[in-house]
Amino acid sequence: MMALGLVGTFVQMAGQSAQYDAQANAAMYQAQVAKNNEKIAKMNASTTVLAGFDEQYKKGLETRALIGTQKAAQAANNIDVTSGSAKSVRDSTYILGRMDEMTIMQNATRKADQYMAQAMNYAAEAGLYEYQAETAETAKQFAMMSTLIGGATSFADKWKSWQTVGGTGVF
After folding, report:
1. For residue 168, what is the DSSP state?
2. FRET partner for 45 with CA separation of 20 to 30 A, picked from 11, 15, 28, 142?
3. In the 3-class helix/strand/coil scheme, how is 21-37 assigned residue by residue?
4. Closest C-alpha among 30, 26, 100 to residue 66
5. What is the pLDDT along the chain (171 residues), one digit of tens a residue?
6. Nearest to 28 by CA among 20, 115, 144, 42
């Protein structure tokens, strides 16, 4: 009977080991997922900035084309294109175009900042999962030691009782 108690202790320890290993493995998996998400968020930030540069460049081309069209129309109507309201219209078009370009870049930068904040959150999450995995390993060692001590104590008590009654019969 005492031998079964010892076997039970070791089976319980094996079960605890498997349970805590599974927890540690799950936490490490989640940490890797978070690290992958961090990389994706950083790539999204870079892509957003590059797309902003492209859109800003295209807006600049559109503005310059519009200014050229305005100047050609003014000249075609015999308007002095070097001064006065004709030049002011083109100057205003240029200023508004530049403002649009800055707004495009500001929006892209703001969105990239959001992706970078998301990346930092994923990095922190990965660290938390890694710590959880380490903690599961430590908890496993304590649980197994506790089970071993409990089993050994129980065995010692039973052994002492068995010896007290004469030590005969089923072990």
Report:
1. -
2. 28
3. HHHHHHHHHHHHHHHHH
4. 100
5. 556 666 777 777 777 777 877 888 899 999 999 999 999 999 999 999 999 999 999 999 999 999 999 999 999 999 999 999 999 999 999 999 999 999 999 999 999 999 999 999 999 999 999 999 988 888 888 788 887 778 777 777 776 776 776 655 555
6. 20
In this prediction the pTM is 0.70
Q: What tokens appear for 159 in the block? A: 């052994």
Query: Where are the alpha helices (H) located in the chain, listed in sequence order?
Result: 2-76, 84-164
CA distance linking residue 126 with residue 74, whole number of Å: 62
Euclidean distance between CA atoms 153 and 145, whole angstroms? 12
> Residue 170: which region, alpha, beta or left (left: phi > 0; alpha: psi -120 to 50)?
beta
**In whole angstroms, what is the distance from residue 4 CA to residue 10 CA?**
10
Structure tokens given for 165: 């009654």
